[in-house]
Design goal:
The structure holds three protein chains of three kinds.
Chain A: H1 2-29, H2 33-61, H3 67-93, H4 106-118
Helix pairs in contact in A: 1-2, 2-3
Chain B: H1 2-26, H2 30-55, H3 61-83
Helix pairs in contact in B: 1-2, 2-3
Chain C: H1 2-19, H2 24-40, H3 50-80, E1 89-94, H4 100-111, E2 116-121, E3 127-132, H5 138-157
Antiparallel strand pairs in C: 1-3, 2-3
Chain lengths: ~120, ~90, ~160
């Protein structure tokens, strides 16, 4: 029984660490801020959520219901999208360039209209 | 066996943190640095989680919560600070 | 809907008293039995059965989990590809949702799903600008977002 729970915890930890490492590699390898936001916003969050689930299962098997860990998972899910939205928006408004093989940019038209109206 | 897996996981996470640190130092724009720092904050939460399993203690659970929220607030205020006051501009 | 939950909690407490067992387990079993009773008499209620909405929320969470796993497999594929030749782009997605809560929920869900990160809103809050990591077909992508998430959110908050 105990070894089975340990195996499940180990699998969750390995999955989580795999996604975390992939997100780190992605942040180093991808070419512009907007693509890097994909790696940090999705993979890092899911990786850490997996690790937190492993922690929760580990303590649950000892009969301790640790609700703070569940709260941490909830906060991670709530905060990750907002953080990546704010970073990409401030990057676009500060004029950080898009990667060179970007094909469409609908946002540019919006800002051009905006600046025309304000003039 | 179980402890070995956890220690290997901790070393892999350390390597990931090191990679992110490279991006913090290199990052062409400030937003790159903020993004990498945010990811470091999130990964530190996972790091502490694995240490909790390894040491079989739940005293760090408060720290996990506070670290999550502080990382979020830090990221938000930094990017807001960079954004505010800047007129919408496109100088290609 | 609050009235029905009140009835349900009342039934659960009643069940707890009848069992003479004041624990969380008996409260939960009482609550489940209350849900069953409400389900049986749902035709005599004035309002819609509130579990319909709960069921819609469960469906939304299920959809979200599946998409989140798919999104991460997607990111892994893009990151570990030896040659970085994906074609990113920013696309505008118009939405029919109205309240601020629904739109922010949609933006958060878009961020955590395959290949897309929401970036900005238009001035009238009707268009979400989305950065996609690989845009093979623009129209299909917009349709995909509108059909899956917008519909599920509408079912929850209609």
């Amino acid at each position: 029984m105990n070894t089975m729970i340990d195996t499940i915890v180990a699998i969750f930890v390995i999955l989580g660490v795999f996604f975390a490492v992939v997100s780190a590699i992605g942040i180093v390898r991808l070419k512009d801020v907007y693509s890097r936001a994909h790696a940090s916003g999705k993979s890092a969050t899911l990786g850490v959520v997996f690790i937190m689930l492993a922690v929760f299962i580990h303590f649950l098997s000892q009969g301790v219901m640790n609700a703070k860990i569940l709260l941490a998972i909830l906060f991670l899910f709530l905060t990750a999208p907002v953080a990546s939205l704010m970073i990409t928006r401030s990057a676009y408004r500060n004029g950080v360039r898009l990667e060179k093989n970007t094909i469409t940019d609908d946002l540019k038209e919006m800002y051009e209209q905006d600046s025309k109206q304000s003039k | 066996m179980f402890d070995t897996v956890l220690i290997v996981a901790l070393s892999a996470l350390s390597i990931a943190l090191l990679l992110l640190f490279i991006r913090v130092v290199k990052g062409p724009s400030t937003q790159d640095r903020i993004l990498a720092l945010d990811a470091i904050g999130v990964l530190l939460v996972g790091f502490i989680g694995i240490i909790m399993i390894l040491q079989d203690t739940s005293v760090f659970s408060d720290i996990v919560l506070v670290l999550t929220i502080l990382g979020f607030v830090g990221t938000l205020s930094l990017s807001k600070f960079l954004e505010r006051g800047v007129v919408i501009e496109h100088d290609d | 809907m609050p009235f029905q939950i009140l009835i349900n909690v009342f039934l659960a407490v009643l069940w707890m008293f009848l069992q003479n067992e004041y624990t969380v387990v008996s409260f939960i079993s009482g609550y489940v039995i209350g849900v069953l009773i409400l389900f049986i008499i749902r035709r005599f209620l004035k309002f819609d059965f509130y579990l319909n909405r709960v069921w819609a929320i469960v469906k939304l969470i299920y959809l979200f989990t599946v998409e989140l796993i798919k999104a991460n497999i997607d990111v892994v594929k893009v990151v570990l590809k030896p040659k970085q030749d994906h074609q990113p782009g920013i696309i505008a997605v118009r939405t029919r949702l109205e309240s601020d809560f629904e739109i922010s929920l949609l933006a958060a869900l878009i961020t955590l799903t395959p290949g897309t990160v929401s970036m900005d809103f238009s001035a009238d809050n009707k268009t979400i600008y989305v950065h996609a990591i690989d845009v093979p077909d623009k129209e299909e992508m917009i349709k995909g977002i509108q059909n899956s998430f917008e519909k599920a959110i509408m079912e929850v908050t209609k």
